[in-house]
Write a structure and sequence with these properties.
Blueprint: E1 2-4, E2 13-19, E3 22-27, H1 28-32, E4 36-42, E5 49-56, H2 57-63, E6 71-76, E7 81-85, H3 86-91, E8 95-100, E9 103-104, E10 114-116, E11 138-143
Parallel strand pairs: 2-11
Antiparallel strand pairs: 1-4, 2-3, 4-5, 5-8, 6-7, 6-11, 8-9, 8-10
């Protein structure tokens, strides 16, 4: 995983934080100001090595005030839901991808954000239990406990 710089994205909503019954939007610009990283990794759902750019999931959780939780819930636009346990973001650097091959993710390319596990650098993440946690088309993040 390498730190990179890319042109600033538009100030469009990436997802919403659901907290205490309230919904707060987080924009792509807010996310990418946390610092961008690039990883190349295989995906359990696509062939070959894929290159993603985005922000550390742990930094996102700090930004939205959920870093101390035991788990968080990711909700996708198609109502797919996954609980991400703390050990996933503390055992290695998960990436909340905002781009692929330098291009902003769109709904057509499973964006505007998707959770990516760095399988090349952390082979221990390549398990059947973690495969469903590769959530894309994320619309909301909330506390899991």
């Amino acid at each position: 995983m390498e730190s990179i710089k890319l042109p600033e994205p538009p100030d469009t909503v990436a997802f919403n934080i659901q907290k205490n019954g309230e919904s707060t939007p987080i924009t792509l610009r807010q996310l990418e100001k946390l610092g961008l990283y690039r990883i190349t990794t295989p995906s359990p759902f696509e062939s070959g090595q894929l290159t993603f750019e985005g922000v550390l999931f742990s930094d996102v959780l700090k930004l939205i005030g959920l870093e101390g939780k035991d788990s968080v819930v990711l909700r996708a636009v198609d109502d797919y839901v996954q609980i991400i346990p703390r050990e996933d973001w503390t055992d290695g650097p998960l990436l909340l991808a905002t781009r692929q091959d330098g291009k902003l993710l769109t709904r057509r390319t499973q964006g505007p954000t998707r959770l990516v596990y760095p399988l090349n650098d952390y082979p221990s993440f390549d398990t059947p239990i973690r495969k469903p946690r590769w959530v894309w088309l994320i619309k909301a993040i909330e506390s899991g406990n």
